[in-house]
Every structure is written in structure tokens, then in C-alpha cells.
Amino acid sequence: LIHGPNLNLLGAREAEHYGAKTLRDIEALVKGAAEKLGYSVVAFQSNHEGALVDFLQKESPNASGIIINPGALTHYSYALHDALQDAKLPAVEVHLSDISSREPWRQVSVTSPACIAQVSGKKETGYLEALEVLHKRLSA
Ligand code: DQA
Known about the structure:
Layout: E1 2-3, H1 15-18, H2 23-36, E2 44-45, H3 49-59, E3 66-69, H4 78-87, E4 91-95, E5 117-120, H5 125-139
Parallel strand pairs: 1-2, 1-3, 3-4, 4-5
The structure holds 1,3,4-trihydroxy-5-OXO-cyclohexanecarboxylic acid (DQA).
């Protein structure tokens, strides 16, 4: 479970877009739901693109799937796209806000082509939907 830049500030960031939950709340929500399905979750957040790439390279060999909210890196990080692709795992991209109805630059995702699905605009419940998508894929 990976979060990109500024998502450490969830709870204090524009609640109309991102909801009221903190990053810890979201991590606990995903961990609880994933454990019921038999998965364990390694959660990581960084404000640094390279740290996210390093984490993907280090953890992917031991992982079954990825849930990622890349934050603003969604819109321009080819490095993150490539790291997701090189991970060779099913990945689901999540956005708390509905990026398709915000500024034009936010409507573009350069990372989603490396993902099997994108869930956008469902606040924290989007992560549970992402988990379901991953679970379906992994049990298929
Ligand atoms: C976000 C949307 C991005 O455009 C923004 O930069 C974020 C959060 C979301 O969850 O809605 O940091 O990924």
C-alpha cells in the first residue's frame, strides 16, 4: 500500500477533495480488510519520487499486488510508471478525489497504464474497492 507526496497530511488537507480520514486511518482500514482476506499489508508513504521507486524495487519480489495513490506524481512521473511496470504485479491506482472532474492537468494519469484499474473519487472507500479488484485478480 503506497502513498505519494503530501498524503502524509491527509486529515488536514482539503477535506472536500480528500475526506477527513488520516493516512493512519486509511492504512488501518486497508490492513483490516486485507487481513480478513488473508493478505498482510506493507504500508509506505514518501514525499520523494526516488524513495517510492526504491520501495517498489525492494518490496515487489515479496508481494502479490499493489495499491497505490501516487498523489501528484500520478500526473507526471514516468519513473513511477516504469517502476510499477517493472514490478510485474497487479497494481490498482486509487485517488480519493475524482481526478476526472478537477483541473485539466489532474485529469491525466501517466501511471494508470501500468495498473490494472483506477478507482477515483470514492474517498477512503476507494481503497476497499481497489482491494476487491486485486483480490478478484489474485484468486482468478
Ligand atoms: C490525489 C489526486 C492528486 O491530483 C493530488 O495531487 C493528490 C491526491 C487523490 O487522492 O485524489 O495528492 O491522488
